[in-house]
Amino acid sequence: MIYPQNAADKLGFTEIRSFIKSHCLSEMGRQMVDKIQLMTNFENINKFLRQTREFKEILTNDSQLPINHLYNIKSLADKIRVEGTFLSEAEFHQVLLSLQTVFSVINYFNEREGRYPNLEALFEHLPIEKKIIRSIEARIDDKGKIRPNASAELQNIITGIAKAEQEARRKIDHIFKSAQNNGWTADGSLTIRDGRLCIPLLAENKRKVKGFVHDESASGQTVYMEPEEVFQLNNQVRDLEFDKRREIIKILTALSNELRPYVPLLLSYHGLLTKLDFVRAKALFAIDTEAEMPELVSQPEVNLVNARHPLLLLNLKKEGQVVVPLNIKIEEQQRIIVVSGPNAGGKSVCMKTVGLLQMMVQSGLLIPADESSRVGIFKQLFADIGDDQSIESDLSTYSAHLSKMKYFVENSGGKTLILIDEFGTGTDPQFGGPIAEAVLDALNKKKVRGVVTTHYSNLKVFANGAEGLENASMMFDNLEMQPLYILEMGKPGSSYAFEIAQKIGLPVQVLNAAKGKIGVQQKRVDTLLVELERDKKQILENRISLEKQQKRVDTLLQENEKLKSYLEENRKAILKEAKKEAQSIILNANKLVENTISEIKESKADKEQTQKLRQNLKQELEKHQEKEAKPAKPAETEEIVAGDWVKLTDSETVGQVIDITKENVILAIGDLRSVVKRKRVQKVSRKQVPKELRKSYTSSLSEDIAQFRPEIDVRGMRGEEALYEIEKYLDKALMMGFSNLKVIHGKGDGILRKLIRNYLRKYPQVARMEDEHPDRGGDGITYVHLG
Asked: Which residues of this UniProt protein bind ATP (predicted)?
């Protein structure tokens, strides 16, 4: 149930109907669109939504459905239902073409059995009676005319007419040539008068030829005569023509009698064609509005993700602009959303979007929102939008609002969706505010769901403390003094009345006088809201910065874990090598000591010889110590190019060079990408790199470079989401050595473009930014040049 009656007009649903009707191929399809109304049965709504989604799938991804001829079979079936009536040749031809369409459609779906179950249900158990088509085709040809052989009698009549006309033509040609030779005829040839073939004669010669004068020229100098010899033949043709018409009526009557038992089936075929035209029109409208089927639930709730107002979407699409998506959630915990914010900030559009999309879903229409959206079912939809003052009913604007509020409070319940625009306006704010608050409290106690827009501070305060109510505001750029059209849940918004007035240029003395007239408490609340908005923006920027730093820390931790893992894997090999070297050193030392002792014994402990041998032993040990302590001589600087394998000089980490930029080298170390100074790496041969590592790095690197494109499309994303995606792409572009990055953000009001550019200016690697060429997107695309 919708209240009041004009709520559908106020929300824009009537315009939606008009758009859908423009896609219909038949009048019966358009009549069905006029009958669209809100449904409350879950199964019916689900069925209609799935039918539309399946037809959309056919239109976008399958071959064309053979819907070529859609005629009103119902009116023709009703006509032959009465005994003695018959259809004309043209009407039978319409029935024939319509039935051919029906059977072609059924055959189309039979070939795709199981792919479109909800559309197949439209003709489930519908018999295919081809006898009807055969009966009509036996009498009516492809041009919609009766066949000459429709009956033996008709064929004889047509043959007789042809013979009589041929004989009459032969005789009149002979008479006409004879008259010409005698000079009796006027200029011209044989002509038709009153349906009879006549000779043009000069008036003075009309008595020289026997016959009947049918007409004369305006000047009276020429008469048109039918010769006596032809007169009888023409009468015979005329009689045969009457016989032919009577025989055709007889054939059509017999064919109508033959089809009369199939009238119920014809009506079923008519219903199928009507529904197909109707569903097709809904699917075409869904394509126009980029609509999808949301998740349908039986509970009264709404969770719209990236939703857009369909009419606004169509209008802005013509102008090459995009709609800022709406994200809103209405459920048991936050039943009524109280939306505040500046004038022309999008409050009413937000509320109307919720109401219109709810009506569309419950009417079986797909909506322009993400498939992840959840939409429930409401038994009632109440709306108070615009000025409904009535002279006839002696209602002022405020009285009309109060009448609706009375109805809302008395008739609403837990499955009612209410939409109230500019709640409480129309009277003295000192009294309108408290009354609105009391009405809102009463509605909240009845567990209704809905969206309310307001400028009243008392309603914002009430929503902040009442269970089931949730404040929300339309975001506003208080530096540029322009709306962002983004709904932010959880806090009220300022009206920015003085700020907007100041931007417009209202004189300072007028503004100061106005500020002095408002209450201290109201001034404090509005100031707090403005400051809250500014703090919110600063917190957002700080959070983005912290998230960025956190991501870098996470990357470093991952790299550290990779290096640690690599060292753990190679620790055993390093220790084994060290042990072997230590054993070799000990062995050599033992040999040296043993030789020294042996020589001392041989010299029988000669003092000088012993001293000399000790000195040699000391020198050998010192040499070995120097060799161990002396750092390895750095290898001569070799030229490094992309694809070379290198080792970090201060660790055993091995990586492959992706690119070289000035003094920096971009390395692929496992799944990580790292930028290091040129002097920190040393080139190694491929043989020194483990085979498994070479294979892994080569495939990973080639795959990353092959798949990566320095272009990102963030249209339709929220600000934070867009910045997060851009940051990931920018890091990859830098690591892979790309010199530029293309960001597609769309034009719109330039809000997303400004946010992105301000964010990218914080990167030292960003050299400059510029717009794309006007022919290829202009300021809807930002080129980021990396230095």
From this structure: 341-348
